[in-house]
Amino acid sequence: MNTLxxxxxxxxxxxxLSQKALAMACGWGSQSRVGNYEKNLRxxxxxxxxxxxxxxxxxxxxxxxxxxxxxxxxxxxVVAPADRSYRYPVLSSVSAGLWGDAVQPFEPGAEDEHIxxxxxxxxxxxxxxxDGDSMTAQYGESFPEGSMVLVDTGIxxxxxxxxxAKLVNDDKANFKQLVRDGGRSFLKPLNPTYPLIEINGNxxxxxxxxxxxxxxx
Length: 217
Hints:
Elements: H1 4-14, H2 19-25, H3 32-38, H4 46-56, H5 60-63, E1 77-80, E2 85-95, E3 100-101, E4 114-117, E5 125-131, E6 148-152, E7 162-167, E8 172-181, E9 184-188, E10 197-198, E11 203-213
């Protein structure tokens, strides 16, 4: 099973589900989406991966071909145990503007793209590429467009954390800082030209950003 499509088809077969049955379990109106994924004609984003992994009874890591590593949060390949180096998959882009589409098609071969880190995840971890400039600050901590952020889904988000938030019932996500003020929670951009976004049941917090990388040339 060398491709994501082959793995989807394999685990669907193990569950004795037709493409139509899997599509229905994921809440999709047509089996064509499953067929396109299995033929590698389209690449699923994080939201669709979550739905298929739940319906198939396997983790996203297994669908991505990462196996099961309890030591490294369930989805990392250990590169050099003595140095505590782990390879985490790059899943998709995430908007750092207002609510943006974070479930973009992979570039060719991106499902096999990984970045090595010495961070040992507490849960499944994924690298995401930042789009937009709302997390770009003139001073201090800054995440300009093109930065890579490592997200740990096994950490409980707390005020002050940098988080990935996802709109409920939509393929939208956002990268912001979680803050509380007057008993209310907000997503705060580091770029002061962008507004605060109040959390009022409109989103769920996917995970906490634990590391970032950026390329200079």
